[in-house]
Queue: 2 jobs
Job 1
Amino acid sequence: MNKIALWIVGLGVVLHAHFLTLLPSRDSVWDKNETTIAFDIAFMHPFEQSAMDMEAPKIYLNNRKTPLPLTQTIKLDRKAWRSSYTIKTPSVYRFFVEPQPYFESAEEKFIVHIPKVIIGAFGMQEGWDEPIGLKYEIVPLTKPFGLYVGNQFRAKVLHDGKPAPDVEVEVELYNVFGLQAPTEAHITQIVKTDANGIFSFTMNHKGWWGFAALIEEGSLEHEGRSYPVENGALMWIKAY
Amino acid sequence: MIRYLFAFWLLLGSAWAHKINLFITQEGDRVEIYSYFANGNPCKKCQLLIKNHDKVLLEGALNDEGRYQYLAAHKNLEIIIHAEGGHSAKEVIEAQNLHPQNLKSHLQGEQNKEQINALLGLLLIFVIFFLLKKIKQ
């Protein structure tokens, strides 16, 4: 009986998608008096608003040259991180986070999600569709800032710089609205990439939406055993 | 009716696509003016108008990078950019560190800068020809 109960709990965890959140305080900058962007970085189930402890990641702007400063914080009662960046010139800014691998014992695998978020500043709209050059990456085909509810978001998933066909992309709303899903199946939406690595999704609610293209590749050691790695190319966009 | 609305929407979209942006910063007594389109292209040689209330302080043009440096002698400045096709951008700022310079000397300074740039260009051309001649010999 206990085994069955544990199995049910385990299944419950499997059903809920993990997302590494990289949420900026705004997705575009227009006001010269509000140019500092704060970032919330946490590892969680965004629709259900429950989190896991997260070890210190690294956050970068455009490339891996210089990580931005981090401070530890608490998010949903779990260890999380904050960072900030002050924008000085008109441009399109592409931020991304590299976390430490997270061992998920219930699923017997490591999770390495690399989220990115793109911020437009002072009307500049050039470069949001260019890849950063990450091993696993979502490259938007829809301008990723200044979106409305009901907009269709299209993007391409790249694996080693090439389009990744037939990849599952999990989608969740960062549910700070207290929404209740009609069933468990409604929590995580899933779309798949086509032969050109392209997927699309229509956002039906305001707020931040997370997209996680999941590619299982490679392995890592944990207590003398080798486990597969779930690599996630993540992207966060906001619908108004 | 729907056709007209669609045409209006297309026109609006097109106008936005050509929207010019104006980004003004102040470094010391210099007002740095930068104007650009959404695609990142600079507003080259676009018409620049600087006013203090209704008084025109400067009528000039941005350079090829869509930039202009202005030494502010008045606190309240209205900066207006006009591009071709009737597109324009405007911003009102309060200059922080005023420069005790009149328009005449400011324009003289700008002219001097242009003359220096022209001289440097000529010098560069001369150096290139000189080097090419040397190589041929």
Job 2
Amino acid sequence: MQPITRREFVKRTAVAGAMLTSIPAILEACSGSSPTTSNKPSKLTIAAVQGAEDGPLKKVAPMYQSQSGITMEIVEFPYDQLFEKLVTTFQANGSSYDLCMMDDPWMPKFGTMGALQPLDSNFGFTRDSDIPSIVYDVGTWPPPHGPVPPSEQGKSQHLYGITIVGNVEMFMYRKDLATTPPTSWDDVLANAQKFNKANFYGYVIRGKATNPASSDSLPILWSFGGDIFDTSWKVKLDSTESIDAITFLTQTLKKYAEPGAANIDAADRDRLIAIGQAFQSTTWPAEVTGVVEAQGVSQVVGKMGYIPIPKGPGGKGLGMMGNWLLGIPKGSKNGSAAADFIKWLIKTENMKTYVQNGGIPTRTSLLNDPTLGQNNPYFPALAQSLAAQPNWRPRTDQWNAVETIYGTAVNQAVAGLKTPKDALTGAATQIRTAMKQAGYPS
Amino acid sequence: MQAVRAGWRRLSRDERLAYLILLPALSAVFVIVTIPFVLVIIQSLSTEDGTFVGPLNYSRALANPLLYEAIRATGVYALIVLPIEILLGLSFALLVHRTVRRPGLRAAIYVLAILPLVVPPVAIGVVARLIYAPGYGVLNVLLERYVGVHQEINWLGDPTLAMLAVASVDIWQWTPFVYLVLFSGLQTVPRESVEAAQIDGANWWAQFRYIDLHYLRPLFILILFFRLADVLRVFDHVFILTGGGPGTSTQLLSLYMYRVEFKFFDTGQAAALAVVVLVSFSLLYTLIARVLPLERA
């Protein structure tokens, strides 16, 4: 072997070192780094909500992994933390997540931020006639109907999210005790009076402050003709209809409700229903599958009836959407692969597998499939609710603030700290101030 | 620059060395504390897009009635937890100090006292909810079974009881901290002083009043400083137990500021609130330090 000089040794070592240290950079360059690249990535990362909503997704993701060869990583966060995590990630245009689960009231915030990649223009998503149009509407920004935030008026509409959990708030009652389902809130009240007795509550109010109280009361508010905003963003929470609705819930129905309703959340409600201590309440699909109809957990399996939200004095019953969508963050470098995953997931045969693993479908054909309905007795009610064009929460990026104020006011009324009128009047004033500061008409 | 150099030269060699040794620590404080604080001040004077708005965020923050409800709730919370924790912690410390002589037993008590401090506040909140929850709360079950209270007590739905419930969790978790600090303080009391007092016929109260308290006084200030700061940071168990309700009756300052930032996404107002709270508490701490003697008399 030829001996080399020290200078030559240093030179060769430097060249070899430079080549070795360049390898990751070269590989990175080869893998492509621009957003929405069409190259196949080795991994897709999904930011998901922890709980019943992402359980079925976790079960079907390995199937896609084996078919596509792409590793599916699901990073879970509790509800509040997921929202905060996504907002901060979007603000930094981070590329940590290729897909994100989003509750539908978050869409205005993310739409206004311009945080997501358009699925229609970028990835060729089109509407499927088997999926109700409202499901596509809820993932579209600016909203196709209803008031549009001032800052978003005139912007072109795009589809930014595809629903993978077709949640709509419904109504449940003990069908083994009542011969006919309640069709109106008067019927609900009559049943509450009739069946209320010691240790068996005629109605369950989910009255914990902020989101729980807000979610529980909005369908009643709407069914009574009340609302938080009119069509031009004017606050109408202190209108007669709104006050009547909240008075009905927090005073009339409350007489037959469980004690401590001001601190009751969904899990507490499900417990009361599941141990056979309550007659009726509003409900979400995940509560039905997770607790109320869960074998070995619930004592009322097969005893509950599920119907769309009962009608109010005006003859309309309005359910509330609570869809969970999948979107692709703007910062994702794997947009095409992420879009392929969404397309795979909503194919009829894959969505059927997803439903068999506890998922909540959006396809009408699956909701009306009698074999799937056997294990999911609420599917017909959900299909009816979706077909009836349920309401969505006001499409404003200020929704979180509005919900906090409104949900606190309803909680005050449930707790008896304020009359419904005083609580709603105070909340209306606060919401007007918040909306005015955000650039909305006062 | 020349003035700095001249000033540096005027220092003795030891002083220069002292400043050099302090430099890394001061740099860390500058990076970790000073820079973020300056950024918060800038944020408090700007809109989300960075436009300078002067004191507007401060006036909005101070004009919001929810701020005063949060301050009131925090004040009530502090007035409940601080005296009870200090009295209970002091009682336990004196009891163990005077009655428990076996080192093994003292060590066991020490470990037991540490446990609540290392349990995550979220876990404590969940357990507390199992105790106080309407319908299935353990406390109501025990009250019914052993005390004969058949009417369910609405621990988390009544403003006064909800405040007591969240305060009780704090008391359970932080009384051991007070105990540990005061117990270690009692170990510093010279044995000769106690024995001399006993020979002079001093009873237990006189021993405490004229000897023990003398040594514990600076520790009370320390406890007060720490616990006041903790009260400002209380979040997890309140969030889990009541979510700030019923209404806003248990919405403490930390929960209120969290909502302004992460629910209202009003970063300007949240930053203004942070500055107001920081300045107010700095003033309060200065006042406490001046009024109460830090050094032993």
